[in-house]
Specification:
The chain contains 5 helices and 10 strands; from the N terminus they run H-E-E-H-E-E-E-E-E-E-H-H-E-H-E. The protein has 251 residues and is an alpha+beta fold. Strand 3 and strand 4 form a beta hairpin.
């Protein structure tokens, strides 16, 4: 891990350490190394859905099927487990969606966060999240000029409702991220360890559809902490009825 990524990793760890003990946490064990994720309590619907799938071992053996340098790595396509080399992926989703949980300006698309993929605004104007597919943000470091252009774009698509705060601007100028996605896709967690693995995956060679030429696979999604797991229903008491048989004496 280089010094810059070590610094970014420290920033992510410090930001998340205060609430880490009561957060759900998982670890992607991949063919490129391990990535540890803490999920935000501020996005409970996305947290609970992701952990439900983790308990079902849904993500085990799926691919990071879409990788774009200096942007993000994406996984969770249910069709990717047994996909032939070169097959176009990205359409495999579960049959339900999740209401968006935008939490600006506290939670935004800085480097190292995990967010839900979804269908485009044209067919999904409510910006509801897909149930399974996710992406981990890498992005770029921005300067003032580029951030001003991003703000213009955000103003045009949100009628001026989405604003980059001074804190967000400072983060995008130092840590990096994808500010143009703010208010468009739900961010629901962050990398706490393994940002160097995200970078390694982000740099692999890909085909024209952004699929890695050599499969990058989630070997297992390990649950580290699951404090909000549904409690099992109490066992029902089994009441045994003992029938007493009284033998009549023969007269």
């Amino acid at each position: 891990m280089n010094i810059k990524n070590a610094f970014i990793g420290l920033v992510l760890l410090v930001c998340g350490s205060a609430a880490a003990q009561d957060r759900a946490e998982v670890e992607f064990q991949t063919t490129e190394g391990n990535i540890r994720i803490a999920l935000f309590n501020e996005t409970p619907q996305h947290r609970d859905n992701f952990m439900k799938l983790a308990r079902m071992e849904f993500y085990d053996s799926l691919l990071f099927h879409r990788v774009i340098k200096d942007f993000m790595i994406q996984g969770g396509d249910l069709h990717s487990k047994h996909a032939e080399p070169g097959k176009l992926l990205g359409e495999g989703e579960l049959d339900y969606t999740i209401e968006p949980e935008f939490r600006l300006p506290q939670i935004y698309h800085r480097r190292g966060v995990i967010a839900s993929a979804r269908e485009s605004d044209k067919v999904n104007p409510e910006r509801r999240s897909g149930a399974a597919q996710f992406y981990i943000v890498w992005g770029k470091v921005y300067d003032d000029r580029r951030l001003a252009k991003v703000q213009e774009k955000l103003d045009s698509i949100s009628d001026g409702k989405i604003k980059l705060t001074p804190e967000m601007i400072d983060t995008y100028k130092t840590v990096g991220g994808t500010p143009h996605l703010d208010g468009q896709y739900t961010v629901f967690g962050e990398v706490t360890q393994g940002l160097d693995v995200v970078e390694r995956i982000m740099k692999v060679e890909t085909d024209k559809n952004d699929r890695p030429l050599s499969d990058v696979r989630i070997l297992k999604l390990r649950i580290i902490s699951d404090p909000y797991a549904p409690k099992p229903a109490p066992a029902k008491k089994v009441v045994k009825t003992v029938r007493r048989v009284v033998k009549k004496k023969a007269k």
